[in-house]
């Protein structure tokens, strides 16, 4: 009878990429400003500060206003 011992296979080392904080901070600021602009656009009062006249912006983002909890009726 032959006895064999299985040697465990070594998992390959996973290298985590190093991201410079300055580069990461730039993207965080960019997407943060983009998110704030989107929230401002969605939450803008009906016609008070919208560039298109009338209810155009309100109708475009109507469902998003309900999703975010803004009253719009």
Unreliable residue stretches: none
Distance between the termini: 83 Å
H-E order:
HHH
Strand fraction band? under 5%
Oligomer: single chain
Task: Describe this structure as you would to a colleague.
The relative contact order is 0.09. By secondary structure, the chain is mainly alpha-helical. The model has no long low-confidence stretch (mean pLDDT 77). It has a domain at 35-73. The protein has helices spanning 21-43, 56-60, 62-68. It contains three helices and no strands. The radius of gyration is 26 Å and the shape is elongated.
Write the layout of secondary structure elements.
Blueprint: H1 21-43, H2 56-60, H3 62-68
Gist?
The chain is mainly alpha-helical and 73 residues long. It has a domain at 35-73.
List keywords for this structure.
single chain, 73 residues, mainly alpha, 3 helices, 0% strand
